[in-house]
Amino acid sequence: MNQPVLERSAMDEAVRGSLEAVYRRALDIRAGQVADYIPELARVEPEGFGIAVATTEGRLWTFGDAEAAFTVQSVSKCVSFCLALELLGRDRVFEAVGVEPSGDAFNAIVFDPHTQRPFNPMVNAGAITIAGLLREALGESAEATLLDRFSRAAGRPLGISDPVYVSERDTGHRNRAIAHLLLNVGALKAPVEPALDLYFRQCSILVNAIDLARIGATLANIGRNPLSGDYVFDLAAVRDTLAVMFTCGMYDYSGHWALDVGIPAKSGVGGGILGVVNRQLGICTYSPRLDPKGNSIRGLEVFRRLADDFGLHAFECTNYGSSFMKGMI
Predict the structure, then answer these.
(1) Does 251 participate in catalysis according to the annotation?
(2) Catalytic residue at 77?
(3) What global pTM score does this model have?
(4) Following CA atoms 216, 217, 219, 221 in sequence, which dihedral angle do they give, to the nearest 10 degrees?
(5) Domain at 76-203, CATH class
(6) Which of 53, 123, 192, 269 is catalytic?
């Protein structure tokens, strides 16, 4: 079924109209709570709400608090995983961590019973393992290297929130327990504190919705930043990262996400959700009120509606690929 081709001005109007309508509907949602198990996150303004959409052609649409700063939290896991695949290769990475959905909470203290390794790199146990691999490969330069990749993908220098980092470090007892269990089963090497420190720091990187949308567009563009032309990520690593995001990126909601939205994505308890439509665009929503699984409630609603409005679902049956990009041709 052929889709009508829209002029750019008409496309701009259609996208902005859809974003505004989705924003207005989701704005009335007051359910959920900010993450309070990290004391510094409990202090964030719960009503912050922004949307950003960035294309692989370099275009950008925003609505609401798209420039409000927040910490990336678990969204960082897709970037650290991608970097580890590039630097260490698939064989080494998959010796340490699996790629199967766990069906458990993101901070569950449970490993694959057959391999005694974390189920996947999108849960805390897997991400701490990946941090250990990066620290092992890069030493003290691991933090700078990871922050550089984030910055290049976003298209601007990014930094770390020291208050959030200190809050996570001082209260991260469950993650510390996970790390020592990883050491016990051989998935992590001693000492564990450098790996944990890198993990706490990567979660504390400050971004806004525009940054994450541009990072999504860089992943959608098979690793090349659409604005700078910089090849930020390895091609094969991007493919594997998007695949694991699709199946595991939304915690123990990943199955419903694949059914309802149908794009690779990663959420974080800071309120961000990053979505990637392959070869087309990156989408980010920011709203810190979370459901019990740790996903932004407003963000879930926005993604569901945008997927319907623009035919973004990977298995959308009413068009050849996304109707969004057919309007861009």
Answers:
(1) yes
(2) yes
(3) 0.92
(4) 170
(5) alpha beta
(6) 269
